[in-house]
Amino acid sequence: MSYFDDGDKIYTLGFTYFPLLCGIAESFSFQVPSKYYLTCLTDSEFEYITFDDLQNIIDQSQQIERLFRRMTEAMFSSMIDLHIELRAMTIQERYKNFCQKNPQLLHMVPHKYISSYLGIDPTNFSKLFNSVPI
How far is CA 56 from CA 31, 33, 61, 62, 78, in A? Predict the structure, then answer.
């Protein structure tokens, strides 16, 4: 889970699960400290690559460079979709959309984090979880 912590509240930014890659792309790409954090909500195994090693691989392979560009484009597209959902959909529509895209997360992730991600009060999320058929 990626999240921002302002000291008073945690704002969930996203979830990543196998087989997707996880990271803080802008911090890695621009080599600056991150404004947000990653945490594991389930048992996890990691592989990692340093910035310099990735740059060397990208310099040697146009296919790897294309792969990372496509991953960045997919991440950007997901962020746009989330912005649209948060601004244009009702809480019920957001909830249903999330459940259709990520049904497994309902049983893996504490609901307070999902409600934060969806911009829904935890009490309203609980009501949706208990009453909206998926």
Answer: 16, 22, 9, 11, 28
| Region for residue 85 given its phi and psi (left: phi exceeds 0; alpha: psi -120 to 50; beta: otherwise) | alpha
Pair 69, 29: CB distance under 8 Å = no
54's tokens: 């990735």
Pair 91, 120: CB distance under 8 Å? yes
SS3 percent helix, strand, coil of the chain, rounded to 5, is: 55, 10, 35
Distance separating the N- and C-terminal Cα atoms of the chain: 23
Tokens of 72: 């960045």
Q: What is the pLDDT of residues 17-67, one digit of tens each?
A: 888 778 888 888 899 999 999 999 998 888 888 999 999 999 999 999 999
Banded model confidence at residue 71, pLDDT cuts 50, 70, 90? confident
| Contact (Cβ atoms closer than 8 angstroms) between residue 105 and residue 65 | no
Give the closest residue to 19 by CA, choosing from 39, 54, 44, 37: 44
